Amino acid sequence: MTQTPSLTSLLTRIQAGEEDALLALHDRYVNLVYSVAFRVLEHQQDAEEVTQDVFIRLWRKSEMYDPEKGKFTTWLLTMTRRLALNRVRHRTRHQPLQKTLSLDEHPHMWEDQLVHEDLSELQLVLLSALDQLSTQQQQAIQLAYFRGMTQADIAHHLDRPLGTVKSHIRLGMQKLREIWLADQTAQAGSSE
Amino acid sequence: MSLDRERLLNLIPAYTLGALSNEEAAEVEALLATDAEAQALLADYQAVADTLTYAVPVQSAPGHLRDDLRQRLQSDAETPSDEADLQRPVIDMPVWRRFLVPVAAALALFIAGALLIVSRSGSTSPESLYNELAAAEDSRAIALVGDFDEATNGELLISSDGEHAVIRVNQLPALTVEQAFQLWLVDDDGAVSGGVFQFESPEGPNYIVLPLDKPVDDYLRFGVSIEPAGGSPLGNRPTGPRAFGVTINPPQSG
Q1: How many CB atoms lie within 10 A of CB A98?
Q2: Which ipTM value was assigned to this complex?
Q3: Which positions in chain B touch A110 (Cβ < 8 Å)?
Q4: How far, in Å, are A12, B181, B226 from residue B173 at the CA level?
Q5: Contacts with A143 (C-beta within 8 Å, 6 or more apart), sequence order
Q6: I need a labelling partner for B97 at 20 to 30 A (CA). Which of A21, A35, A165, B156 fits?
Q7: With a CB-CB cutoff of 8 Å, which residues 16-45 of chain B face chain A?
Q8: 3-state secondary structure of B158
Q9: Which residues are registered as beta bridge partners of B157?
Q10: Are residues A134 and A173 in contact, defined by beta-carbon separation less than 8 angstroms?
């Protein structure tokens, strides 16, 4: 029976220059990376190129990942988002953007994807917490995070007062943080 | 709590999302540099923001990506890496630092003075590049924020393709002969020196051409610190106070 290699062993092998290890890591994470890139770019070819860039960076600089700073998946996906946003900034600023962004209606799929590095309870809590935000709060937060828009950009894009957009972002993020803190407290209590 | 501090604390959630204007982001960063409560809030909000990537609907990547990656690896193995890209400018060569520190310091000052920086009396490329970018309709500007002295002001101008960038800065703090300014380029890998220099007229305007080895948007921020005359003794990070900074991409945890 073949044993699935651990993430640590794959990263070690990648640092040693083993291409097969990178391809194994690619198999494991490519859907997640591509999904985030596509969410930001909404353009298949651009998303493919960013996905490629992410794995090439991993190949050349896998030592950049520091396990002490957090989960590998989080690190990988925040890097993907940043590279995708860089590409957004490089391309024309006059391309029309969709006015709506949808949250994942099936967050459990992430669990299926992350068979080797499970989502933490906290992340699942936060995913469900997003549902507790108003549609406007979700929209403002997502346009900022996934489109790289400033609050002023969002106000213009949605034709809403700037103050309203600022409130949506601030109150929405405060709500998510409250849930995050409450979950941390509950976890600390249960481990005592 | 002052009203202004409260206002800035309320901006931290948007700062974490990268949703502030450059001016607002600079204000928040100035608070973050000294305020422990602000730093703790930022850490919380970063942790929250990082989970947003998990809210993206999962879809299958095109099947050819694996073969594309394999071909890219083969291609890279056969030809010199185009990401010599990520190798650093000549100014910060470790060999020089290791063996020729005094010479390197003097040379860096000379090179920086000759190539990177032009004071008000200067007339060569940095100021010309600045004027060229200022005249271009598709360039963009990011305000810089003075940290050591609030009077320090100016902006970073970036070409439309992100390949060229020049800083114009006014009202820099006056240095002693034992001190120098040092430029830092910060990306995911950390800080790299962009040169050590001094200005004849700190009040400016003074110009600094950034020695980019990749597009501006691939950096997190740029900053200029006040260091000993030969540059930071640590080589790869500043030791002195920051004279000013410019943020390109807000920091991320993870």
Answers
A1: 9
A2: 0.80
A3: 54, 58
A4: 47, 10, 9
A5: A101, A149, A153, A154, A157, A158
A6: B156
A7: 16-21, 44-45
A8: strand
A9: B141, B166
A10: no
